[in-house]
Each structure stands twice: as structure tokens, then as C-alpha cells.
Write a structure and sequence with these properties.
- It contains twelve helices and eight strands.
- By secondary structure, the protein is of the alpha/beta class.
- It has two domains: 213 residues, Spore Coat Polysaccharide Biosynthesis Protein SpsA, Chain A; 72 residues, no CATH class.
- It has an eight-stranded mixed sheet, with helices on both faces.
- Helix 8 runs antiparallel to helix 9 and helix 8 packs parallel to helix 10.
- The termini are far apart.
């Protein structure tokens, strides 16, 4: 028997934040939902917290796997999801209001959307809003009007407001199943690939002008970790796979937008690690996306 919303919650060593995440979900006014919590091989007491909440509320479906990364955890949860819609929340985040899921459901249903996107807020561990982490895009377009992913991607890339995170989306499950799209395993920045292809597959995307989620930025999160050659390699894999899916002026614009920033930021990695990632990019023909300015910074800035 299906429910209205399946919330997918991949969990890895976030025990200090799980109470807030579960409480924000279980206090939603939309009660016809399931929370699929996947413990991705946590070594802290995350499983104890999951078990405690699962014993209190049968809407929580607790799954476990060896540590294989967020992509595999999400794919496992998607196999078990029965909801009309999918929402993928980070396990150290919380919803902005008690009505967040109800508002998303009502709006998506009213418009028969493939998926909707909305705004969020990012905050640091001190609780301070992170103004530099852009989660505001809904000002770009109107509500209650369908847009193609191609139009939205072009507009967001042109205005430098593009943000690939999946926790700013609310997706119709049967449409997602028909796309046959899953998360690419074994990489970080997997949202970059998933959400970009997701957008390219749709001409029925709607904007909800509300802030739905509060996203925590912390030192141990994917976005908070020290920038390494793995970050660069994973971004290169994203571009490889995206261009396998579609090589077009739009995906080339995405590659230029992404790799110019990736290699500009990549100057911080150790000098001896730069050769392999730069050679990979050059051999893939990506120098035209990186640009000479970012390449110069990559090699010379300390």
C-alpha cells in the first residue's frame, strides 16, 4: 500500500544530529509518509538512534548496509520506496516548517509536476546562516507554470545560481521510475550528475517559492571536508557521464561552469597530486572547459 511521500534518509556517522532530523520529519502535518533510513555502515551510535525512533513510529523503515557511500544508500532506499513522491533529505538537516511536506505534496499534485524545486537555508554548526552557499533560485521564475529542464539549466547557469543538490527537489516517484535514473555509485558530488540528468529528462518542472529545508554545513560533511584530488576526480567523472548521456551546447556550458570553478579551487591540493588529475582532464579534452585562467591558478597559487 502506497503512501503520499517517501523520505529517503542516508545516514553515516551523524548521531548528534539525528534527533533533530527525525523530530522535524515526525512532526510534519502530512502524516501519510514513510521515512526510509539507510545506515551506510556508521561507526558511531547512529543505529541506536535509528532503532529508538523506529520503535516509536512504524513509519520509519530501517535499512542497513556496509559502507558504500550515499549513492548506493539512496539507490537501496529507492528500491523500497512506495510513496507517490520522493524527498531525499540529508540526515543532518531539518525541515523548515511543520507544513513543509504537505505544502510540497499539495503544490506538486495541483500542477501534476514531474518534480518541483524550492529554496532552502544553509547554516553552520554555530547556527549562523551561510550566505555564500546559494540555495535561493525560485526568484528566477514564476509559480504555477511548467518549465523544461533545459530552460531552467540555461537560466541558472547564465545567472550563476545553479545548484545541483537533490534536497531542494520533490519528485514524483512513478515518473522517476520511468526515467530509470539512479545515483552513480562510488563518487562524491553524485547530486551533480543525478539532478542535471533529471532536469534534462523533464519539460514539466514547477517552482515553489518557499523555503522548505534547513541544510547544515559542518566540517565532516561532504561539502565541509578539505578539498582533495578525489573531489576533482569525482567532478571529472560527473562530466564524463553527463556527456555520455548527452553532448550538447547545454552540457558543454555545464562543464565549463563546473570545471572552471573546480580547477580554480583545486589549487589547494598538494602539488604532487596535481599532475594526475590535470592529465586526466587534458586527455579527456576538457581544457576548453577549465580555461587558461583557472589552469594558471591551479598550478601557481598556493
Amino acid at each position: 500500500m502506497s503512501v503520499k511521500v517517501s523520505v529517503i534518509l542516508p545516514i553515516y556517522n551523524v548521531a548528534p544530529y539525528l534527533d533533530e532530523a527525525f523530530q522535524s520529519l515526525l512532526s510534519q502535518t502530512l502524516t501519510d509518509m514513510e521515512i526510509i533510513a539507510v545506515n551506510d555502515g556508521s561507526t558511531d551510535n547512529s543505529q541506536e538512534v535509528i532503532d529508538r525512533y523506529a520503535a516509536q513510529d512504524n513509519r520509519i523503515i530501517a535499512l542497513r548496509q556496509e559502507n558504500q557511500g550515499q549513492s548506493v544508500a539512496r539507490n537501496l532506499a529507492l528500491q523500497h520506496a512506495t510513496g507517490e513522491y520522493i524527498y531525499m533529505m540529508d540526515s543532518d538537516d531539518k525541515l523548515s516548517t511543520h507544513e513543509a511536506m504537505q505544502n510540497c505534496y499539495d503544490y506538486a499534485e495541483k500542477n501534476n509536476a514531474d518534480f518541483i524545486f524550492f529554496d532552502g537555508e544553509s547554516f553552520s554548526k554555530e547556527g549562523v546562516v551561510r550566505a555564500t552557499w546559494n540555495t535561493k533560485r525560485t526568484h528566477l521564475v514564476e509559480e504555477n507554470k511548467p518549465f523544461s529542464g533545459e530552460y531552467l539549466l540555461n537560466k541558472m547557469l547564465d545567472t550563476r545560481t545553479h545548484n545541483c543538490v537533490v534536497w531542494l527537489l520533490f519528485i514524483r516517484r512513478d515518473w522517476l521510475q520511468n526515467t530509470e535514473l539512479t545515483f552513480y555509485p562510488g563518487i562524491i558530488h553524485e547530486d551533480e550528475l543525478f539532478t542535471t540528468i533529471l532536469a534534462l529528462k523533464s519539460d514539466n518542472i514547477y517552482c515553489l517559492k518557499q523555503s522548505i529545508v534547513k541544510h547544515r554545513v559542518r566540517d565532516a560533511s561532504t561539502m565541509g571536508l578539505r578539498y582533495t584530488k578525489r573531489n576533482i576526480n569525482c567532478y571529472l567523472t560527473v562530466i564524463d557521464e553527463l556527456q555520455k548521456y548527452q553532448l550538447s551546447p547545454l552540457t558543454e556550458k555545464f562543464a565549463r561552469y563546473t570545471l572552471s570553478k573546480v580547477f580554480y579551487t583545486g589549487h589547494v591540493i598538494p602539488f604532487k597530486e596535481k599532475f594526475a588529475v590535470f592529465l586526466r582532464a587534458v586527455m579527456s579534452g576538457y581544457m576548453k572547459y577549465i580555461g587558461w585562467k583557472s589552469a594558471l591558478v591551479f598550478w601557481t597559487k598556493r
